[in-house]
Every structure is written in C-alpha cells, then in structure tokens.
Fold:
Amino acid sequence: MKRLAVILCLLAGPVFAVQPDEMLDDPALEERAREISEGLRCLVCRNESIDESNADLASDMRLLVRERLVAGDSDAEVVDFITDRYGEYVLLKPRTGGSNMLLWLAGPIMLGAGLLMAGLYLRGRSRTPEDAVTRLSEAEQDRLRAILKD
Structure:
C-alpha cells in the first residue's frame, strides 16, 4: 500500500505545477488556458509543457496565457503572441509550414535518396560481367600460398 501511495505521488507531481493563485475564476477560460499550456514548451525544462513545469519561467508563461485570454484573445492569437515573444521553439508540436517544411521533409528525402543510391549500387553490381573481375595471376597465387603457409 505504501508503494502505491509513493507511485501516485510521483505521478501526481505535474498536477501541482499550476498554482491556485494562477487559476482563473471562469472554468471555461481556465480550460482553454490548460489546453493552450499543454502545447507550449517550458524553456527551462525543455521537454515539459508549461502546464507541467514548476519553473518560474513556466509560471510566468502560464500567467501570460491567462492574461491574454482574459483580454479576449482567441486561442490562436494567444499561441501566436507567445510564439512571437519566445520563438517557435516554444511549441511542443512545431508548425509544418514555411521554413519548417524543409525540416519536416528532410528526413523522408534523405531516406529516399539513400534507398535510391543503394538500389543503383546493387543494380550496377549485379550487371558487372564475370570476366571484369580481375583474377590473380599464377605468380600472385603462388606468393599468396607461401604467405598463408607461414
């Protein structure tokens, strides 16, 4: 039973990241703030959302999200504001448009190029005539036998 309590406490750690004084009175706005916060990266913790992070910067970002929502911004406007302020790295799921398209396509393009080069190499190798392979002369074979004998 004690182990279960420890495991539950460890799993519930991120729940305590959002402080009660940060929460909005309007449940609908708070829900929107949570959804937006789940998609924004904590710049201190790197792989945690600002909703899960206890870092001071994450707390500032959560407050900023809530301020923008109270001011009447839409979800997209809030995300754009945060992205303009902190850079596109703040998005846990980067956008697929613009200059990021090169990054999204680089992997599949490189994989395709590698497969194409491997296929061309194997195709060329299978078409090599048998007599094009150089054989050892009789003298070279005798010398190799002598070396291997030692």
User: Anything to note?
Assistant: Residues 115 and 121 are 10 Å apart (CA to CA). The domain at 15-90 is CATH 1.10.8.640 (Helicase, Ruva Protein; domain 3). The first helix runs from residue 2 to 11.
